Amino acid sequence: MKIGVPVSKIMTKNLVTLSTKDDLVTAERLFKKHHIRHIPVVEGNNIKGMLSHTDLMRISFADAIDEHEEVVDTIVYNMFTIPQVMVHDVVSVTSDTTIKDVAEILSKREFHALPVVDNGKLKGIVTTTDLIRYFLKSIL
Prior knowledge:
Residues 11-67, 86-140 form the CBS domain. 34% of the residues lie in helices and 19% in strands. By secondary structure, it is an alpha+beta fold. The model has no long low-confidence stretch (mean pLDDT 88).
């Protein structure tokens, strides 16, 4: 395994994003459609927060339905907005942050994804899954 590899080598660049004006029904559909667990909330290219699938589970019984169904608990979701549910104080890294540093941040914190931001603009997202894939490639 190489030391000092930048996170830009493993981050997801083709992002699924939400705006603060989107609703939670849309968020749930995006989580299911793309099989993801974290979505940056943006205004233009600027990150405003992060919404995780776990955030939605905290306010609903959506996990009681089949995760492959498109039906979601719209009654509960219509009671909240994305800004009410998302994390606002987002920890981010830059694209030249090393994979080692990202792994250290994620191992010490209670979240599983970091937005990658350069000069105030969202460039990607790196998750614990990205790290696991990288480490598996390194040892196999």
